[in-house]
UniProtKB/TrEMBL annotation:
It comes from Lichtheimia corymbifera JMRC:FSU:9682. Pfam families: 2OG-FeII_Oxy, DIOX_N. GO terms for molecular function: metal ion binding; oxidoreductase activity. This is Oxidoreductase. Belongs to the iron/ascorbate-dependent oxidoreductase family. InterPro entries: DIOX_N, IPNS-like_FE2OG_OXY, IPNS-like_sf, Iron_ascorbate_oxido_reductase, Oxoglu/Fe-dep_dioxygenase_dom.
Length: 333
């Protein structure tokens, strides 16, 4: 394993075809990125350019509808449906006015049927959407297998399936494919414009598809007490952006990195619309307990304190963590 660095200087690019040709080399690269950066790009990840662009076309068609038609599918307590501009505030402490974007959250399909009422624009594309969502989940499962291999989780404890077995597609969870639209500003500004405030992702893994207009920045330094430095995450052609969420950081006692990030438009891009898609993988009722790996260090005192905490309160699950974070996100609306 590599020595963990405190600051981030670049985002690595990984050829994911290695998963099928040399999984141990693939696992090492992914673990190094997960430890040191918390973000990485994937090439050759299992969806072709046309499949991705077809989903972007559907997204644009949905967001082009009148507001009243989109609000028919307003977001529910299960975090599926339409969320309007400034309805969410992922960083309410510093950006209480809300995030300047709108989104539509698509739940996992069940037996090839949507897990929610979908707008008419999706009527003729349900097979495409189902395939896209399932393929995203497959990619997530493969990344998790790589992490388990690199962490050398014993077979007796679950081995390479330790993470993926807690994220099976058919298990109840709040996985969503999130279509995102950042409208252009009505009036240009001479300063950078924050579209989504600084935050970490709530779940286990996120797959991000970017389309043309950049804007994602990741926090380059871990120490929040110092002046925050930002690193641009440019759009790389035919690449998928992957980042780790809070649950993987919890499971590994902070070894893996749930890096904070934001979306910022520069004066050059403020007048352009931006579209992206994110697949958020959640752990459902999986308990956020330490991974059985020799790389996850726990002192005797930590073990004793954790045992006392567990005796006093129910263990924290991925679903409970998600609920708490979502409540904070929508509290001002």
């Amino acid at each position: 394993m590599m020595t963990i660095s405190s600051d981030i200087s670049h985002i690595p690019v990984i050829d994911f075809s290695l998963f099928h040709t040399d999984i141990h080399a693939c696992a090492k690269q992914i673990l190094d990125a997960a430890e040191n950066v918390g973000f990485f790009y994937l090439r050759n990840f299992g969806l072709n350019r046309n499949e991705v662009q077809d989903m972007f076309a559907l997204s644009k068609e949905f967001f082009a509808q009148p507001k009243e038609e989109k609000h028919v599918y307003a977001i529910t307590k299960d975090n599926i449906g339409y969320s309007s501009v400034r309805q969410e505030a992922v960083d309410p402490q510093h950006y209480a006015q809300g995030d300047y974007k709108e989104s539509f959250h698509i739940a996992k399909f069940k037996q090839n049927e949507p897990g929610q009422d979908l707008p008419p624009v999706f009527d003729t594309a349900r097979i495409k959407v189902d395939h896209f969502v399932k393929t995203c989940h497959t990619i997530v499962s493969q990344i998790m297998e790589c992490l388990a291999i690199a962490l050398e989780i014993p077979e007796s404890e679950g081995g390479r399936a330790w993470f993926s077995s807690r994220h099976k597609y058919e298990m109840p969870s709040n996985d969503v494919l999130r279509l995102l639209h950042y409208p252009p500003l009505e009036h240009a500004s001479e300063t950078d414009d924050i579209r989504i405030g600084r935050h970490s992702d709530y779940g286990s893994l996120t797959l991000l598809f970017q389309n043309g207009v950049a804007g994602l920045q990741i926090q380059a330094n871990r120490d929040d007490d110092k002046e925050i430095r930002w690193l641009d995450a440019p759009v790389l052609e035919d690449c998928l952006t992957v980042n780790l969420g809070d649950c993987l950081e919890y499971w590994t006692n902070g070894l893996l990195r749930s890096t904070k990030h934001r979306v910022v438009f520069t004066p050059e891009t403020q007048m352009q619309p931006r579209y992206s898609m994110a697949y958020f993988c959640q752990g459902g009722q999986a308990v956020l307990e330490p991974v059985p790996s020799r790389f996850i260090t726990k002192s005797a005192n930590e073990e004793k304190e954790r045992a006392k905490d567990e005796a006093a309160t129910p263990p924290l699950t991925a679903a409970k963590h998600l609920e708490m974070r979502l409540n904070a996100t929508y509290s001002a609306y």
